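Input sequence (203 aa), recorded before submission:
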Amino acid sequence: GYITPEQAAKLKIIKEHFDNLEARKAELEELILALANPYQQEISIILTAPGFKNTFTAIGIISEIGTNMEAFPSAKHLCSWAGLTPTNNESAGKKKSVRVSKAGCYIKPLLVQCANAAIKSKKHPEIRDRYLRIKKRRGHKKAIIAIARMLLTALYHMLKNGENYNSDLYQKSDILPITREITVEQAILMAQFQGYRIKSATE
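Predicted structure, token format:
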């Protein structure tokens, strides 16, 4: 086709604008990498997890949750903070909404993107199998949130223990201290809450 001088001038301006944006983007990425330089060990650990193949993705995770997992008593607390835990809204025996909270407006979309990538990987069948099992019962959206929670649980243990990803990390549960004690009254209340009817030894 034929390009008029006016169109050529516009294309030149657009190209210069695009090149300028690319240059600013490169400068910003260089600054981010410089700020993340002290966390190279943690970044390399995160990059071993499924769905985390980009350095800036790992930096985004660290910028949200940090590297010191002592700030969170358990992986469940971290998942709740990130808005990946279903709410428990029940009244008079009727369960209402179990939607996840609006917390984690930055880290939650990032983890969901990583989860979408992880379920397509053939290197980690435990993730895809879990996704397919939940999808059959609850649908795609709830299954993806479950996988995102699974990944964040694994990241918690990886950063806390300084170890690379393995398929057993997300299954780790927080072990309660052996010195934990409750009173008889508390035990009775817990049993009643679970639906048990308490009766005396003479009955």
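Checked by second reader. The longest strand covers residues 90-91.
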